[in-house]
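WARN no homologs supplied; continuing
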Amino acid sequence: MGGSAVQKRTDIQGLTTAILLTTTGLFADRRRSLSENIGPLTKVGGLTLFQRAVLTLERAGINQVIVLAGCEEEALRRTLRQGPTVTVPVRWRPIREFPPDDPRTWEALAEDVKGFCLIASVQAVFSKGLIERLCDGLQEGEAALVVYSAADSWRQGNPGNPLVRYEADRLVSLAVSQEQTGGCIAADLLVVSAGRLGTALQPDPSSSSRSSLAAVARPSTSHPIRRILEQAVLDGRVKVVPAQAGSGQWYQDVRDASGVKAAERTLFQSLKGEFEGFVDRHFNRKVSKLFTKLFLALRFSPNVVTVVSTVVGLTAAAGFAVGGYAAGVGAALLFQLAAVIDCCDGEVARLTFAESPLGAWLDITADNVVHMAIFAGIAWGAYTQHGEGHGAWIPLALGAAAILGNACSFWLVRRVQRIRTIRGWNNPVQAAWSNFLLKNVASRDFSVVVLLFALLGKLDWFLWLAAIGSTAFWMILLWVIRPSLGSRG
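OK structure emitted
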């Protein structure tokens, strides 16, 4: 599943530009621990924090990224060139000329923004869904701020970001006590309009009442971004978007080694394949992350991981063909290992933004080749155990039926995917039933069933289950999708 898919970018309700801060946070210095050397080049899940931020924004529909970079600019440029392909334009602004704490920087940057602008620090990982949620229903002149649990932040030390209080979905105040906030802190992820970004030189709203703002022309001592946010709070125009762990709208600050580990846990929890059964969710995914970390360390592409899984699966099929109890159990354990590694190619692809149509096709094709080889191996092993006795042909016939059923199922699943993504269903009932069948039947869970039959020494019984089950599956699936097949080709 190698290569980076070029995503079709569309504006998200006027959000076209992102400004990334590589040396500071939105509100103050990050107070980073220099001894731990956590920075934009720190790797999390196989990519640097900077790469991950740029690629996430690209997938979310951002059309240009402006980077306020320090002395690490050349290293940041190099990591973009050497990593997954970045198609969004990246513009560089040195902080020696554009210091983030200078209001004139933001007024100058406002000229490069049309509509809304997202401002973020790269020392965090966040989801594409969170970026999309930020602009959901955002109106002209409004701002949107991500908030998250202050308890999570304080475990890594005070980040210098203000505590916040909000009612419904509107920000009420900043820098209040933790008891008043309900335990929420402002994240380094903010969306503002170009118009508000250009007001950084206006007076500090915290110094006086709103009516005096126009009369006071002294420069503020607060950070420009905080000043812009405070002005928007006074207008009641700041929407709050709470980051939600365990959902598609997550945010994880990264400032020390514990933050790196927490970010990797968050990334792995966000991974999920298209068709997953009970065993995948509760066993394979828990074990596969260990192999995924190894493959990331070895810099294996998703396609290479697919090949590794296929080789292990075909080796298991050869073991089944040997026949005998010990060979059957060993082959079943290998097949379970192949199922675990089969989770890894998708995980590596999603973690490194290396998904591609070719990779998806290779993955599902390799899976079906392995499954048919497993059926053939078990059938041949059972045949050799029966010898030339009465009914020796039955395992071969069952194996052939299972292989044919798997081949028909593979063809129909590909048709379902094509209808769903390109042509569309005739009615929602077909869509619901096809999704139910694919999510609850077409999974890797049968590897555990194979292992159970192997431990019982009854692999020939499994052939009956495979032959009947695969045949019934493709017939039922064909019946469900037949109207769409007939009318839409």
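The longest strand covers residues 184-193.
OK
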